[in-house]
Amino acid sequence: IVENLVYSACAADVDTTIVDGKILMENREVKTLNEEEVYEIVQKRSLSLYKRMKTVMRRE
Length: 60
Hints:
Elements: H1 2-8, E1 17-19, E2 22-26, E3 29-30, H2 35-59
Antiparallel strand pairs: 1-2, 2-3
C-alpha cells in the first residue's frame, strides 16, 4: 500500500511534509524558507547571470 501511495501521488497531493520530526511544509506553506530572502538572492543572481550573458554575446 505504501508503494502505491508513493508512486501514484503527485506534488498536488502533498499537504504537509515532516522530516526527522521537523515540519518542513504545513498546509502547503513551506516553513523552512524565508521567501523574501529567496527572492533577493534570485534577483541578485539573475542580474549577475544577465550581465555575464551580455558579455559572452558581445564576443560572438
